[in-house]
Write a structure and sequence with these properties.
single chain, 288 residues, alpha/beta, Ubiquitin-like (UB roll), 4-stranded mixed sheet, 6 strands
Amino acid sequence: MSDYVRERLDRVVAELRPSGRGATPEADRGTRLRRPPDPEPPEPEPFAAPPRPAPVRRTPKLEFTRRHLLVVAVVLLLGALAGGYALTRSRAVPVGEPLPVQQAGGSAPAPVPAPPASPTPEATPSQAVVRVHVTGEVRRPGVHTLPLGSRVVDAIEAAGGLTPAARPGELNLAQQLTDGQQVLIGGGSRPGGEVRGGAAPAAPGGSPAPGGGAGGAGAGAAGAGGKVNLNTATEAQLDALPGVGPVTAQKILAWRTQNGRFSRIEELQEVPGIGPKSFADIAPLVTV
């Protein structure tokens, strides 16, 4: 540093320094010669780290492996087995023919022709039975089914036998029975016995045997005046009546078997299929 510059600095320092007592030239010189302290450098600001980016989620990559292929193959195989089993178990269900529907106000539908009927029940060995109504003083009164050719004593045994109050009188226990007959066993107030109705038993040649009928009197199927007796008529005789076909004739025989006998011709209207109009045509031709 040159002398000139040093002298200028000493002056400036002397001017700036306040004057005071007790100051010595050495102190002034020391003051002039003392350099002001260097300013402290500013403290560096703490370093802020930049924010870390958020982690990125990676979707796992799907791969079709051999294990997946095996699972798909097993599922397809099970489905094929189930479908095959269902096809083998399926069966065709027959559907019956629809029944005719009668319209309101219209005429009744024509009867459906019945299939060819087998020979009459009296002629078939599989139906070689007779149904007899046993009533009166027996233990189990009612309609009983007996083999063809049975006799009165067989009917009484089928009905459980006679009660202690039974009084059969001179009833012929050996009389052969026919279908539709009624065996009446009397008691104390009305002793005696009687076999009512029924057709005469058939002879080996096919014609009625003598001695048949109610009480052995030989009553035939036709009553007084050529009328058909509802209690002794056969299916063929009933089928010949106006408005009565094979089906209705069988229903008449079924009613007679269930109820024993007709007590009046008006009971014919209780047979299914016989209405007031049909009864009006049949009534003049039948009797009981």
